[in-house]
Design a protein that fits this description.
Elements: H1 5-15, E1 28-35, H2 38-50, E2 56-60, E3 65-73, H3 76-89, E4 96-99, E5 161-169, E6 179-183, E7 192-195, E8 199-202, E9 211-216, E10 224-229, E11 240-241, E12 247-253, E13 261-263, E14 273-274, H4 281-293, E15 298-304, E16 311-315, E17 330-334, H5 336-353, E18 361-367, E19 385-392
Length: 393
């Protein structure tokens, strides 16, 4: 198998540092397979290791599934870069990024001999060659390899200065959970992602201005964007210095109001389906929490697609499973607007199942009339999305 030079560099970088399944942040995992059987997860790890990938596995408690992954990182940008290289340069074309919590960081199998002859089928989590989500049974388990001594790797020294980006509710001053992005220009597509309210290390920007743009898009609050002079960060209005010399930057967030739109960036769908892909739960549950905390809110869900052409569509139908295929799913041929509406209706159904009154939610299918990116470009998948319009607050 031929690897690109860029992927070899990334793989080497991954092998040179420890892999954490849990940290104080909510990591982004680059996942290559999911299994109900731990034995099959172990076998799939061994197979991936034989492809020169540093695979480990851990347990997703919410899905009751073992995830096999090759990297856990605090940076969404890094995870997406690795995912792109995986899909372009390896057999793991159906890998995905999961943001959340996995347990069992010591589940690290060792290579064995002879080599695995057949790739175990990942369980439940992916779309294979089209819109149908595959749900094969686990393959028979293989012999458990004997443990071997682990090489101790020294934790690298943090790069950059220590910061705390303090996300606060501008109305009551309470801390708000969420991510902060740092980008080198107002319209940059590349960014560094950090958890708010935690000490993080930020390198100097590479641009001539010496500024980062701090961006916060917390669900339920208006987007915030402000420049930060890296060398003069302590002079930022309201900034203070913590006990470990970390620079604390306060970021006051304000609740969304009537007419505001919320982009649900982490709610994703399998291709040409109205079925959620792994990792969508966190933002969906955030929308549920927003509606529960603000009983006066009424919203309109706008579904969008990549492109306007007709297509074969798989939707949830009579199934109760929002995140995988089922014999009760509906298969039709329809327009982009029909698919977009089905996706908006799927989000509504999830909210209603969580106890939100359906009368507070309306839906609309926009199809591909409001695409953000080139429908044939590398970011085309981001056109498949659902936006939330605040109709009443």
């Amino acid at each position: 198998m031929k690897f690109s030079l860029s992927f070899i560099f990334i793989a080497c970088a991954m092998l040179s540092r420890p892999v954490f399944a849990q940290e104080v942040f909510s990591p982004y995992y680059v996942v290559i397979g999911g299994f109900k059987s731990e034995a099959n997860a172990r076998n799939f790890c061994i197979y991936a290791q034989e492809q020169n990938l540093p695979a480990v596995y851990a347990f997703n408690e919410a899905r009751k599934t073992f995830y096999v992954y090759i990297r856990a990182t605090q940076s969404r940008e890094v995870a997406l870069d690795i995912l792109k290289s995986l899909r372009e340069s390896t057999v793991f074309k159906d890998a995905w990024v999961f943001n959340g919590v996995l347990s069992g960081s010591d589940l690290i199998p060792q290579n064995r001999a002879p080599a695995v002859q057949k790739t175990p089928d990942p369980q439940t989590e992916k779309v294979i060659a089209g819109p149908v989500v595959r749900e094969p049974e686990d393959t028979p388990s293989a012999a458990v390899p004997q443990p071997q001594p682990q090489t101790q790797v020294e934790t690298p020294k943090p790069v950059g200065r220590a910061f705390v980006f303090k996300l606060l509710n501008g109305e009551n001053g309470n801390a708000v959970d969420g991510l902060v992005r740092l980008q080198e220009s107002e319209r940059a597509l590349q960014f560094r992602g950090f958890n708010g309210n935690e000490k993080v290390y930020v390198p100097a920007p590479a641009n001539k201005s010496g500024k980062w743009y701090v961006v916060s898009q917390v669900l339920g609050f208006r987007p915030l964007k402000k420049p930060l002079n890296y060398e003069r960060a302590r002079e930022t209005h309201g900034a203070s210095v913590g006990p470990d010399e970390e620079i604390i930057i306060p970021l006051a967030l304000h609740r969304v109001r009537k007419g505001d739109y919320i982009e649900m960036e982490n709610v994703k769908f399998f291709n040409n389906t109205a079925l959620f892909s792994p990792g969508s739960e966190l933002e969906l549950d955030g929308l549920v929490a927003m509606m529960q905390e603000n009983p006066g809110y009424q919203i309109k869900l706008h579904g969008h697609t990549n492109g306007n052409e007709e297509r074969d569509i798989v939707s949830i139908g009579n199934s109760a499973n929002f995140f995988g295929s089922d014999i009760a799913n509906t298969k039709t041929h329809g327009t982009a607007k029909e698919l977009a509406l089905l996706r908006a209706e799927l989000v509504k159904a999830y909210l209603v199942q969580k106890g939100i009154d359906s009368k507070r939610i309306s839906t609309k299918g926009e199809g591909g009339t409001q695409m953000i990116f080139d429908p044939s470009g590398t970011l085309a998948g981001l056109n498949d999305r659902v936006e939330v319009e605040i109709k009443k607050h």
